[in-house]
Specification:
Belongs to the SOS response-associated peptidase family. Its EC number is 3.4.-.-. One of its GO terms (biological process) is proteolysis. It comes from Limnoglobus roseus. The protein has 95 residues and is α+β, with helices and mostly antiparallel strands. The chain has one domain: Alpha-Beta Complex (hypothetical protein yedk fold). The protein has two helices and four strands. Strands 1-2 form a two-stranded antiparallel ribbon. A hairpin with a 2-residue loop joins β1 and β2. The chain is extended. The two termini are 30 Å apart.
Length: 95
């Protein structure tokens, strides 16, 4: 996912901040929300992270991920607990 981070000082204290970048939803996510995270393709990771990448090119990367490469399906409430990790979070809810 695309994001930004910054480290700045408040007096002598270092403060680290970050945010996720969102965009309009694709057809898969539109029924659920009015925005979605920007998903950077692996082949664009270096470009996204490089300081010399132009602002114009970075803006071109801030687009919805192709709906044809995604799917949506119900999952259990297990995924709703922030401390839960692993494959169980991705298991489709049994019909």
């Amino acid at each position: 996912m695309a994001g930004l981070w910054e480290c700045w000082k408040d007096g002598t204290t270092k403060i680290f901040t970050c945010c996720s970048i969102t965009t309009e939803p694709n057809d898969v996510l539109r029924p659920f929300h009015d925005r979605m995270p920007v998903i950077v393709r692996p082949e664009n990771f270096t470009e996204w992270l490089a300081a010399e990448t132009s602002e114009k090119r970075l803006r071109e990367l801030l687009k919805p991920y192709p709906a044809s490469e995604m799917e949506a399906f119900p999952v259990s409430g297990h995924v709703s607990k922030v401390t839960n990790e692993g494959p169980k979070c991705l298991e489709p809810l049994a019909a």
